[in-house]
Amino acid sequence: MISSGFFKTLLLGVCLIVVIDGANVGTQRDRSRSPVGSQSPSVKATAPQQENLPVNRQQAAHVFANAGKKAGLEIWRIENFAPVPVERSQHGKFYEGDSYIVLNTKERGGKLSWDIHFWLGEKTTQDESGSAAILAVELDDSLGGAPVQHRETQGYESDLFTSYFSSPIRYLTGGVKSGFTHVTPNQTDGIKRLYQVKGKRDARIAQVEPSAKSMNKGDCFILDTGKTIYVYYGSKSKRTERLKAVSGANQIRDQDHSGRTPVKILDESAREEEIQEFFDELGSGSAATIADETSGGDDEQFEKNIDAQVVLYKVSDASGGLKIEKVAEKPLSNSALNTNDAFILDTVSSGLFSWIGRRSTKAEKEEALKKAQEFCRTKNYPSWTRITRVIEGGEPSTFKQYFREWRDIFAKN
Fold this sequence. Notes:
Severin, seven-stranded mixed sheet, 20% helix
């Protein structure tokens, strides 16, 4: 059996965690992906001392008082240890220096269900990320502890998270703590912004340095000059990226310019002088000087799924330290699971599942999150590896699919 003593805020640990209770399900994300413009994750391996953070719980209680009352999406940005609502028109735009809480409320058969995500930018501060985790728990408690909780990091968002937005997620530089001013609608600050659109299936839009050196022939790019928004198709870019680029440009037009700025698409039919106009506005380069598509990274590698052996482990600390015992390999049978114990299913491509027997105590269920994090470190897995906590009797299909047959027999134990 696993010892007790940890709290919900263990969600802030070094691994990505999803909590599933009953029939609620959080989707998985493979841990081989690299974010746009990056080849390695930047999630910090150390967590702040959350109990010392001056989180404004009173303000949070006021802000969350009417949250989750009806179906829809609600987003808050963390500012000075408190949640600040994000206008609906600005949904889908995230600053890499900030942390956010995203609540999706669904209604089915007259009943509401919730998914809470706390999103951490690549350059968010530990104070902000810690506050986001704590405030996500506060929001969870205000909804009776029923929501599924997810931890999302920039570039590694779950499919569930990205499904909330009709246009690709857009990453912008800056944030509350950095001193950068957030982009506001109709702003004419004279700053030119260049965005890279990359991804074969699940494209992302990331702000990059406004220079021809940031470009390559394999991706699409959006240049926002304030007066005109240009969409540049790399000569080797994919059709899906081009569609996402147009969608992203329209999003920038609507979010940042209230729909008033023209969008100019530079495809194969564009005249040479139109192409040169783009580079003149950018301030450097030409179509002939753009780097080869290989400089942007391989899209297959970008979204690669690792096919590897699925292994089931039994986890305990009866001897005073973490003990991991290999129980079975694929093909699996759920007869290997025991209602009195805790197990970790390592699927590699879909991350880890932490399965908790029904007879485990509440403290033991919470402790399982810590054990899953320790398992990540023991296996030298990336800090952004996704973990799903599964309670016996509420196993999602994403968990059951790894067993050759599944019989719901544990209720009889």
